[in-house]
Amino acid sequence: MNCNIVYSFEYLLIFSHHVESTSNLSRFEQENNEKTGSIDQLKLPQVAAETIRDELVHVTALAYDPRIELHREEIDTGHFECPERTFAIASQLRGSGLLRRCHVLPAREATTEELELIHDRPHVKRMERTAQIDEAERRRDEACFDSMYFCKDSYSASLAAVGSLLECVDALLDESREEGHANNAFALVRPPGHHATPSQAAGFCIFNNVAIAAKYAMDKYGLQRVLIVDWDVHHGNGIQDAFYYVSFVEMVLLN
Question: Which domain of life is it from (predicted)?
Answer without folding.
Answer: Eukaryota
